[in-house]
Every structure is written in structure tokens, then in C-alpha cells.
Amino acid sequence: MAKGTGLPPNTILAAPDFVQHVSLASSVGQAFDVPAGMGIVNFSFRGDFSVRYGSTAAANVTTSSTAATGSEINPTIRDLRSTAATTVISVIADQAILGTLSWYKPA
């Protein structure tokens, strides 16, 4: 059998358009404005973290909840264009960690 030609086009992210470095203190949240023109964010952290989309601050997850308003644990990449209300994201961790928010312009 012939060897394949590799990955199909557009299956790997290009370099980000905008990168924010994050240094979180233990249990101290930090809010980030969505940069102008950006709609997709890739999260990369050296430990566990929680994220909340919109103006409400993220909270460390410590108990079970059936509410639809909790923080998301360790998201990877998110398309924030689904709601015009998401102009801010909040990040928190229960220990001090470093990370990045890598932003991409919508196609």
C-alpha cells in the first residue's frame, strides 16, 4: 500500500494572532477582555484551572452542581463567537500556575 500524503489541509492550527501570558496566584481569579477581532481561544496551562465566560468571575470547582452556570475545568479550545455577550473570560486555579491564552481571528 502506498503511504498517505499526510494531514489534510487546515487540520492543524496556524500560529496564534494574539497571545496573553497568564500568571495565576493560588485561588485568585483574573479576568481577560476578548481582544478586538478575535473569536477563538486556545487555553494552555501547567496545571488545573477553571474558566467562566462572560462577566461573572470563575470559581474553583469544589462541589457537584446541577446548575448550568458553573465554571468549566481545563477547557482546551473554544469558539467564543456563539454569543456576542462573551467579551470577557475569567480564569482561576486552586494553586499558582502559569499559562497562555492563544487567540485566533475567525476565518
Ranges with pLDDT <50 over ≥5 residues?
Answer: none
Subunit organisation of the chains: single chain
Task: Report the CATH topology name.
Answer: Jelly Rolls
What helical percentage do the residues reach?
under 10%
The average pLDDT score comes to 88
Largest sheet: 4 strands, antiparallel
Spatial separation of the terminal alpha carbons? 36 Å
Order of helices and strands: EEEEEEEE
Please give the domain count: 1
Topology:
Blueprint lengths: L17 E7 L5 E4 L6 E6 L4 E4 L18 E2 L3 E3 L8 E5 L4 E8 L3
Antiparallel strand pairs: 1-8, 2-7, 3-6, 3-8, 4-5, 4-7
What does this 3D model show about the protein?
With 107 residues, the chain is mainly β. It has a single domain, classed as Sandwich (Jelly Rolls). It is 0% helix and 36% strand. It has no helices and eight strands. It has a four-stranded antiparallel beta sheet, with no helix packed on it. A four-stranded antiparallel beta sheet has the order 2-7-4-5, with no helix packed on it. It is globular, with a radius of gyration of 16 Å. It starts with 17 loop residues before the first strand and ends with a strand.
